[in-house]
Automatic annotation (TrEMBL):
Residue span(s) of domain SusD-like N-terminal: 108-218
The keyword Nucleotide-binding belongs to this UniProt entry's keyword annotation: no
Signal sequence range: 1-18
Family: Belongs to the SusD family.
Keyword terms: Cell outer membrane, Membrane, Signal
Organism: Labilibaculum filiforme
Protein's name in the database: RagB/SusD family nutrient uptake outer membrane protein
Transmembrane feature ranges: none
Gene3D superfamilies, A to Z: 1.25.40.390
RagB/SusD domain boundaries: 355-476
Main location: membrane
Superkingdom to which the source organism belongs: Bacteria
Subcellular location(s) of the protein: Cell outer membrane
Cellular component terms per the entry's GO annotation: cell outer membrane
Length: 492
């Protein structure tokens, strides 16, 4: 038994926490068989719980995309920046340091050898590998589990696997097309060098994992907001239903969360001189809308290599020092003066740049002041569910319902919201998409909405490519990386 436990822990160290380039390869699976993992799990549930906690750590750790020195490699929030830039809504305002340069000028996406294609690929498949370890150890995808602990472990693992495939399917496929081969789909450690599965198969797996997790996680209570629970599973499931065109299911699932969480009120949606621990930056900063997030402390050791370092001018890092991340000029101009969110974007140096200085800000609001990051990471909040429900209702030709749902958000942001009730058809869909772009700026969600809505983006204020680009233009989607094509004989 000691051999089994030691082997399993060694597998965890190699398969989950290594930053080397070969973590997708098969060697580490030889350390312990699937049968032995199934034997270990029931004997020591804490082994799986520790591995699950490790998955959540990967979401914010630096280097989890496989690099040691790249300052845009720091987990999920790093790829939120990737997608915001590809959507055109986030502008890279300077090339002084070079991080994101190739992404911002849309050359990364045309060169599968560019390492920025590989970082998210490695990050998400690394987590997938770890989730498959847990799922195999619990008896496999179709295991019938008796104990609550085993059900909750399986639910968390399947939710995290679905989360990874959800983002991979959005970042590496030009659009939702069930017939198109898009990704290698692995659901067990025994599956290696898999060929590309179709969009239909990938999205079916995402959906089935999340539907199963929503049931498996019933009754589970997490500590804080870092881990996934039934609410997170349902939030991802609502996104999945929406993407797949299952509009009734999307609306119903989103409503479950709307009923549980409170929308950020207007007076807390922007810095007002008093709310220094604000709703977008701190779990305990009146963020009653947070469904999923990470409470960062000094123990995590994050500094300039972080989302805060790259985006916030009040953190000592790149946004302050010369590579600002600002709102697209056209998008900023489209926000009515009566909308409180216009005040989220200011220019403290009078350079006519739309910094998100009054939306995301480190406590104290001292330029370059936060040297060690304790501002928090938000992964999901209830406003997304309101927008999902409104979008689903609009595409389901339920315009009155969509208006009513959208007003729940807009009435808390804009004093002149009566116009919503007059919108129908495409005009209503366009406004919902517009609200996605304003409300979720900087949070990695407008890219997903761009693809769902088959939008054409118009870039204004960018250093390059100030032009209209359709959602399925090759420049807006990452390439399957060179290393994967080299290593996997079943991908041409």
């Amino acid at each position: 038994m000691k051999y089994i436990l030691k082997s399993f822990l060694l597998l965890m160290a190699v398969g989950v926490f290594s930053c080397s380039d070969d973590f997708l390869e098969s060697e580490s699976t030889e350390l312990i068989s699937t049968d032995r993992m199934a034997e270990v799990g029931p004997l020591n549930a804490e082994i799986f719980n520790g591995t699950i906690r490790g998955l959540y750590t990967l979401m914010y750790q630096t280097g989890t995309g496989g690099t040691d020195l790249d300052h845009n490699d720091f987990g999920q929030k790093g790829y939120d920046i990737f997608s915001d830039m590809l959507s055109g809504d986030m502008v890279l305002g300077g090339y002084n340091y070079g991080w994101y340069k190739n992404l911002a000028n849309l050359t990364t996406t045309l060169d599968y050898r560019d390492n920025d294609n590989y970082k998210p690929w490695r990050y998400y498949y690394r987590i997938i590998r770890a989730t498959n370890t847990i799922i195999d150890g619990l008896g496999g995808n179709d295991a019938v589990l008796e104990s609550d602990d085993a059900k909750w472990q399986m639910g968390q693992a399947k939710t995290m696997r679905a989360y990874c495939y959800f983002y991979l399917a959005n970042l590496y496929a030009e659009e939702y097309n069930p017939a198109t081969p898009i990704l290698p789909l692995t659901t067990s450690l025994t599956e290696v060098d898999m060929p590309l599965s179709t969009g239909a198969d990938v999205w079916a797996r995402i959906k089935s994992d999340l539907e199963a997790s929503s049931t498996l996680l019933d009754g589970y209570t997490r500590e804080g907001l870092q881990g996934v629970d039934q609410d997170v599973a349902n939030g991802l499931l609502a996104y999945t239903y929406l993407t797949m065109g299952e509009y009734g299911n999307a609306a119903t699932t989103a409503q479950k969360l709307i009923d549980k969480y409170a929308i950020i009120p207007r007076d807390l949606a922007v810095y007002n001189g008093d709310n220094k621990r604000n709703a977008f930056s701190y779990i305990d900063g009146d963020g009653a809308d947070w469904i999923w997030g990470m409470d960062l402390t000094l123990d995590q050791g994050l500094d300039l290599v972080s989302w805060w370092g790259q985006v916030d001018i009040f953190t000592y890092s790149y946004a302050w020092a010369g590579d600002p991340k600002t709102m697209d000029a056209g998008l900023f101009a489209s926000i009515p003066d009566t909308d409180v969110r216009k005040g989220q974007f200011i220019d403290p140096w009078s350079e006519s740049l739309n910094y998100p200085a009054y939306k995301f800000y480190a406590e104290g609001l001292s330029i370059g002041g936060q040297r060690e990051v304790t501002s928090d990471y938000v992964y999901m909040r209830v406003e997304e569910m309101v927008l999902i429900k409104a979008e689903a209702e609009a595409f389901d030709n339920k315009d009155v319902d969509a208006q009513t749902t959208l007003l729940q958000l807009v009435s808390e942001r804009d004093t002149d919201y009566a116009f919503i009730s007059g919108l129908t058809g495409q005009a209503l869909k366009d406004e919902i998409y517009h609200q996605w772009r304003i409300e979720m700026w900087g949070e990695g969600k407008s890219y997903l909405a761009m693809k769902r809505n088959k939008a054409t983006i118009v870039r204004e204020g960018h250093i390059e490519y100030n032009e209209a680009i359709p959602y399925n233009d090759d420049r807006l989607t990452l390439d399957i990386p060179y290393q994967e094509i080299q290593d996997n004989p079943n991908i041409n």
